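Write out structure tokens for DUF4253 domain-containing protein.
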Amino acid sequence: MAQRPVLCNDHDANSGVRVGMDRRAVLGLFAKLAAIFGLARGASAQGVLSTFGEEELQRLRAAYPYPILTVPGRVAVAEWEKLKRAGQGWPVIIGDDEALGRMLEAFTIDDPSIYPSSDEVAGEWPASRSVEEILTAADTIDVTSELQRRFEEEFGPDGLEPEPGEWPEPGEVGGSGLTVHTDILTQRVFAKVHLTVLPTDDPTAVPAYLRWGGWNECPPPEVHVAVHRKWREQYGAQIVGISSDTINMRVARRPASREEALALAREQYLYCSDLIDQGTETLEVLAASLMADDWWYFWWD
């Protein structure tokens, strides 16, 4: 009988010792540095060695209501573009089998046919809400005040601002590009990559359809939706890739000035503090990367 997983508390199968969080933190840090500085194109932290067998993946896929396509990793972006042009829904690149398994695991977390309820885990994971409920909740959110509130809730009202730094020289900061289709250790594109197509033409609704977020410091789905609506209006930002812990967005417009880029970088820091705390280390480096590339990268452990 399948057991309901504790998503961020992986255990070593042989020793029973909790190792997942440390591993994901280390790999996530590598991915951030690689993505922001252009040193390598990393995938999400889980895309290293799949822990999902074919039978388990099929069971999870059967409980997932949206189409899933599998393509060679090297054509993932081209396939995404093709699906987007087809206008039959919003496509999202997920990643390899491990990324797909973890995403489906989270999506089906309260499905009793997948993870039967037990007294031990009851109440540990919030009940799933409908897409409509999440989108309605997003309508009520003021992004600026909500991000500040969440930051102060996590770090206190006197939480430290990012360290000041110098603006990088031209060419010192690279872009992330798409990362979810790539192995962060080998820096190679996965042989096969999964995509899903959601029944919407609105990319800001992706977190609502996938029930994505709401663990540790990762905002709940409605906050993602509200933030992405704001960035869509300002920068034409669209989700292209999303794994179990990573979001890849692509923008149509970059910040036009350093001042604008710094303001956006601070907003992104409130949204995803590890961008700086475990990545660029300064607001200026993050801001410079936003002016240098059309791709945005976010990761939560």
